Amino acid sequence: MADNKLFSDFAPQSTQEWIDKITKDLKGADFDRKLVWRTNEGFNVQPFYRLENMDDKAFMNTYPGDFPYVRGNKKDNNDWLVRQDIIVEDVKAANAKALDILNKGIDSVGFVLNWKSISKEELATLLDGIYMDCVEINFTKSHSSVELIQNLQALATEKGIDLDKVKGGVSIDLLSGFSTTGNFCHSEESSFNYLKEVIEAAKSLPNYKVIAVGGSLFNNSGSSIVEELGFSLAAGAEYLGRMIDAGLSVDEVAPKIRFNFATSSKYFMEIAKLRAGRMLWANIVKAFGASNEAVCKMFVHGETSDWNKSVYDPYVNMLRTQTEAMSAVLGGLDSFTVKPFDSVFAESSVFSERIARNQQLLLKEESHLGKIADPAAGSYYIETLTESIADEAWKLFLAVEDKGGYLAAFKAGFIQETIKATAQKRDLAIATRKENFLGTNQFPNFGEVLETIPESVLTPEDKTADNAVCETLKPYRGAQAFEALRNKTDIYAKENGRPKVMMFPIGNLNMRKARAQFACNFFACAGFDVEDHNGFTSVEEGVKFVTEKNAKIVVLCSSDDEYATIAPELFEALKGSATLVVAGAPACADELKAKGIENFVNVKSNVLETLKAYQAELGI
């Protein structure tokens, strides 16, 4: 055949030959330092993978729907439910909204009860007109889950609905509650006894989940993907162990557990996370003595992460949630929620909720991502990521087990300290722009001005109880520090005007343009009034211009060679009327510092701390 001849014309190349060729093209640059990605997950990612990388992976010979479910729980598709949550303040209003969004493509609805008790009559009103055997129905923050489940069962029976067709769940997550408050609402013993009651109450609803494992809490507290997965598995194992000790079997408990993961912007990592999670959970449940492999399936609800969402330039959040939704459904899950782009700072609007719904509907109805089981199968890169994440998450899971399980490890501070260390690394990466937040720490919208932002939007969420027995997790957003910085300037500008930062491009055309663009983006992150210029022909001309503009900061943009003479001349000409900043890291920096020029900004600068210092200098 022609194809066979085509391939036979090209001799096979070994991995070493590829590396040698790449090394040659790098022209002396170190292969590992230049091309190998050192992740926060504890393993390195190579620049390319080949078929030989698949040789030692046992799961490569498994099929979708088969243990350990790395390729998905379903044999012939990758379908998922599109979910939207509704805050219930009035049951009639919530019912009307539910019917509306169900007609717009939603097939899973979540009712957020905010710890309210709900009577059977109120539940009937809330679910009026909703086909309980066709729509997944979920409840969160319910005060009385046993009563709620009993009433739900009664309503289904009255309507003649088979109880095995009632799907959804109530989200009881004792461990997430403990992790955020530092204690249980009641005693630890009574809390787990209550959970057992809920499981027993839901026995007649075989497809209804009652235990939630809140992996999203770790994600939104700044954890790595490996930490989110490893600690979630530990929490799931804690629930299994506690309920088995209370007299239930693993077959009764495991099918009642649903993992709630958040999906971040690490596209391929997130696909691999879900695949690795199913594989590890299946083996954990099997080790607990499951009677059959079907009991070992991991059920997953996903949602877009809050951690990487921003207040400034918020429409960028739509781009983030779209890639997050895509990676989540490619990884395989049971249901997914795209949070509206404005949900982190405002009450979502009709517009933002519609966009969030349609983002999933486009993936399902137009891109057909639910049609193919395990769409990532065969990708050397994703298969390798799956194994790498599984290996590291398993190590973390075992470390938690060695400390006595999730609760014991949390009380000892191990989980908090681990996540905090990762979060601090990520914060530093954001501050130095090694991790970019478009519109926040990189390429901000210069003209964007927001009204006063509530303090709660700009600070970590602290739910620590007065009787907390340990440190707690405090979810936050990676962009908060930059947002607080810029909001501070916005508030100052209302009464004092916005400080002017002028570019001072002079000399070498290419260098001054590149450095002016860099410096404009740098200072605009703090909300300063940044203005560029086409270029000055002399220092005298430039000083006259920036003085008339009442610039508070003047950024010299030129080539390294020209800085040695131009920078001292400009420094003397300004006579302290404005702060002089040199864009770049010239070789003559020490000489310039000896002449009183102390301010430099470049790609190695800590953008956040540098801008805070300029704010302080300007009296902001």
TrEMBL record:
CDD domains (alphabetical): MM_CoA_mutase_beta (cd03677)
Keyword Isomerase listed: yes
Methylmalonyl-CoA mutase alpha/beta chain catalytic domain: residues covered: 120-482
Leading EC class: isomerase
EC number of this enzyme: 5.4.99.2
Cofactor(s) it depends on: adenosylcob(III)alamin
Isomerase recorded as keyword: yes
Record-level Gene Ontology MF annotations: cobalamin binding; intramolecular transferase activity; metal ion binding
Superkingdom, natural source: Bacteria
InterPro entries xref list: Cbl-dep_enz_cat, Cobalamin-bd_sf, MeMalonylCoA_mutase_a/b_cat, MeMalonylCoA_mutase_a/b_site
Record's keyword terms, sorted: Cobalamin, Cobalt, Isomerase
Family designation: Belongs to the methylmalonyl-CoA mutase family.
Protein name, entry field: methylmalonyl-CoA mutase
Source taxonomy: Bacteria, Pseudomonadati, Bacteroidota, Bacteroidia, Marinilabiliales
